[in-house]
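During the second year of the project, the team shifted from modelling isolated chains to modelling whole assemblies. The rationale, set out in the original proposal, was that interfaces cannot be judged from single-chain predictions alone. As a representative example for this report, we include one of the complexes processed in the last quarter. Its constituent sequences, exactly as entered into the pipeline, are reproduced here:
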Amino acid sequence: MAPLPFSPYTFIQCPCSDSTLLARPADAKSPTGADAEEDERTFDPRAPRSNYSLYPLEYLLYCEDCHQIRCPRCVSEEIATYYCPSCLFEVPSSNLKSEGNRCTRSCFQCPICIGPLSVTTQETRHPDANLLSADNAATPHSGGFSLTCSYCHWSSTEIGVDFDKPNGIHAQLAKIRNGGESRLTAKERKERRKELSHRGDSAAAAAAREEIEEQVPDLENQFANLKSFYNSQLADPTAADNGLSTLGDLGFSSPSSLSRIMNLYTGGKISDNKAKSRLGAIREALTPEEGLLVANLDEAALISQLHQSEHCDTASMAQITSQPPNLGEPALHGASRFTSSLRPIPHLLRTKRSKRCPVCRHIISKPEPKVQTTRFRIRLVAGSYIPSISIKPLTLPGPSGSSSSNPSDLLISLKPVHYLLTFKNPIFETIKVTLATPAATPGRFPSKVTVLCPQFDIDANTDVWDEALKDNDRSDKSSRNSGGTTRQRRGTEAGYQLEVGKIWERGRNWVSIVVEVVPASLRLEDGGMLREDEDILEIPMFVRIEWEAENAGDDGGIVPGAGGKDKDQKEKRELAYWCVLGLGKIKQN
Amino acid sequence: MSSKRHSIVPPVSQSGPKPPVQFSSSITIADSAILTGANLITISTESVIHPRAKIESLAGRINIGRRCVVQERATIGAVGSAGKITEAAVTLGDYVTVEVAVSIEAGDTIIGEGTTIGVGSRVGAGAVIGKHCTITPHSDIKAGVRIPDYSVVYSNGTRRVDKRPVAEQLKYKGLARQIDVLRRMIPSNPAKFM
Ligand SMILES: [Zn+2]
Ligand SMILES: [Zn+2]
Ligand SMILES: [Zn+2]
Ligand SMILES: [Zn+2]
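Output from the structure prediction step:
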């Protein structure tokens, strides 16, 4: 296979990678101090740390109060809404605590292939009857409803589960074991018990209790039994200990309550021995009713099932882990290992999150809380504050062309190439851009870099229509000056000669400049191997933008008593950051 | 009216001699279907061959059952890597759906009744797929593999046997309805291939 063609990229460094910057309180008035420090060392895009701080412009946010770039790593997130991705139903966070993080309506995924399951009426089991009544749409279907996967035709009937109603599947499923056997939920069981204890009829009570006990000891069952057993033990350990009745005891004088209270004060150190002796009074569960579960170590049935099945009949790790906690499952050794016992997976809920600036805590991204809308209330993306940089190899037609490269071509060592960097200004003010690059790229193979025009202004991102009207005037003027185009191409008259200190091309809110690169030779003297990605030509570039903004008056640094005059004054702003330009791959010889 | 629409694909080149065919009078075969080879191609009652479906009988006889649907750019009877010539290259049972861009290689390959071969799948030479199977999209059935009835084959290679109560009648009815619609949508031109 041919290697993928290299496409140039720009990554921007978030200031959060420098921990000193985050610790310092936001001070919009004097950012120069930090910059001065930064100026002294060159950012190395190959340093291991850099992997964690470089982002494409599209990933970055911007805090308007700190005037700083913020990345996904440093913003703090808050969950605004929980919702089901399938039915787009918003789940209140109070439900989340009681019901868990899955959709409790009728949204399920196929346990085998994770395709969405749909509720279908069960196909009738009598094909002959079906044929006869084919035209009669009103025939009541004989079976119930089932969940089916339209992708792989898995159906809940395979695990012996069908439903009476087409809605509220989640609640129905909780009451059905694989195989169709119904089971009591914890609540129902409690009610059943209460009913029994209230009724005097001992014979009927015993029979009903037996019925409950006969149920497969599933996780929920066992937990409920154990919990009630231990609660009763904690309430009166003396009863089990010496058989003395504690009638009229409100619990305060019971030894276990006392020791618990003492523990609160002493931190459990002094009364440790005492507590231990008290705990000794609490016995363990002895009967299934108390929550005792005898481990079933006889797995012969499972092993014989394994012998009869093929490899693909056993559930994969991913399938088992994606299963929801099944409270109806037999505890411990009965856990399912076969695909034939996997249950439908209720959809996991998703979240909408708002993002805050880590320094000033202002919200910089906030989605519309309604699940159905994809809009944002607040979203301060970096792309609307800092210029975008696009990279294009510059091909000069004509004999004087110093390079003629295909974008997909590899760079040839020591052969100078030119790249066109286009800066596009997103803000409504004219910005002044200053660029700085090291003369040679860091790393073992330094390539030489020259920015032909390191300082330039970009016009404001004004209204397109305003500009179009203005263009008419300007083209009249410029036709006299430079050949009638609204774009001023510097190279035209000079026969595509590259001039140092001159802009290559300029437009409404963008400027193109040229960078000359001499790729390094990748030859190693000791005959060693190239490390990963060492053949990629990456240039670290320090960008400083200065502009004059309308003084909003809400900045903390401005003295409030300065009066109305300041309001009209423009405030000087600046933003500086490192970025990395990935230009191309150097050919290895 | 179709002449006004310009297709981006180049016209089908029907080169070489026509293969001998045996068509049922009720089939639907698009004008731009491609039939090549030297062996007999049989297409039975009410089957539908979409435009640009390709049926090659170079490596043996091709037998397409009743109410089969062969969709666009599907190739039946492709001479695979084995390249051996057999008596019956490919046999499709009744009610078989071969979806878009499927390739079924020649060499005693048999697809059972009621089976669906999903989009972009490949069925190797000599594979025998049972009845009422579902081969999910982009699956690769290796040459000579036998797949039991009612299997579902996933594209990641895993399989499952469908244990539902059989509902062939319902499926057949759906397929019959689909064929009915297709018949109205695809202009049939069996005469071109005879
Ligand atoms: Zn950050
Ligand atoms: Zn849902
Ligand atoms: Zn599925
Ligand atoms: Zn901030």
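DSSP finds one helix and 21 strands in chain B. The interface with chain A takes residues 134, 136, 152, 154, 158-160, 162-170, 173 of chain B (CB under 8 Å).
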